[in-house]
């Protein structure tokens, strides 16, 4: 079964393709969640975050991350890889810092 089929099966089983990552807004200090919607598009797994404000919208650091699909690896492997990309984007973000990272570091879809 290829990655697209595995992804479709995951969705059909009732799982929602997203990462909900706990963060703290650097400007306000408020706890929040950044949500990345996950999709498969041709040869990539994509994580997209809808910008919450105009500053975020103009920043290339968080909004869109993608990893190439390698059919030699499982869907889980690819999801772990794209999750790491999302975490790295948040770590380098000027908008957020991770909140309770150890508690949530392995949660995904």
Portion of residues in helices?
Answer: 25-40%
| Total separate domains | 1
Number of strands: 5
Mean pLDDT: 86
Quaternary assembly: single chain
Query: End-to-end span in angstroms?
Result: 19 Å
DSSP strand content? 25-35%
- Uncertain stretches: 104-109
Helix-strand topology string: HEEEHEHEH
Principal-axis shape: elongated
Number of helices: 4
Overall structural class, as computed from helix and strand content, comes to: alpha+beta
**Spatial arrangement of strands, main beta sheet:** 4-3-2-1-5
The biggest sheet amounts to: 5 strands, antiparallel
Outline of this structure?
The chain has 109 residues and is an alpha+beta fold. It has helices at 3-12, 54-57, 75-91, 101-104; strands at 18-25, 31-41, 44-49, 64-68, 96-98.
Task: Outline the structure in words.
It is built from four helices and five strands, in the order H-E-E-E-H-E-H-E-H. The model is unreliable at 104-109 (pLDDT under 50). It starts with a helix and ends in a 5-residue tail after the last helix. Strand 1 (18-25) and strand 2 (31-41) form a beta hairpin. The longest helix is centred in the last third of the chain and has 17 residues, at 75-91. With 109 residues, the protein is of the alpha+beta class. The protein has one domain (3-104). A five-stranded antiparallel beta sheet has the order 4-3-2-1-5.
List keywords for this structure.
109 residues; five-stranded antiparallel sheet; alpha+beta
Q: What's the arrangement of secondary structure elements?
A:
Blueprint (H helix, E strand, L loop, with lengths): L2 H10 L5 E8 L5 E11 L2 E6 L4 H4 L6 E5 L6 H17 L4 E3 L2 H4 L5
Antiparallel strand pairs: 1-2, 1-5, 2-3, 3-4
């Amino acid at each position: 079964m290829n990655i697209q089929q595995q992804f479709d099966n995951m969705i059909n089983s009732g799982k929602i393709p997203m990462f909900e990552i706990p963060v703290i807004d650097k400007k306000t200090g408020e706890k929040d969640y950044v949500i990345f919607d996950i999709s498969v598009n041709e040869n990539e797994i994509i994580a997209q975050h809808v910008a919450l404000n105009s500053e975020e919208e103009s920043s290339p650091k968080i909004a869109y991350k993608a990893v190439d699909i390698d059919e030699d690896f499982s869907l889980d492997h690819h999801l772990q890889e794209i999750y790491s990309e999302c975490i790295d984007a948040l770590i380098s973000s000027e908008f957020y810092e991770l909140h309770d990272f150890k508690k949530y570091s392995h949660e995904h879809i």
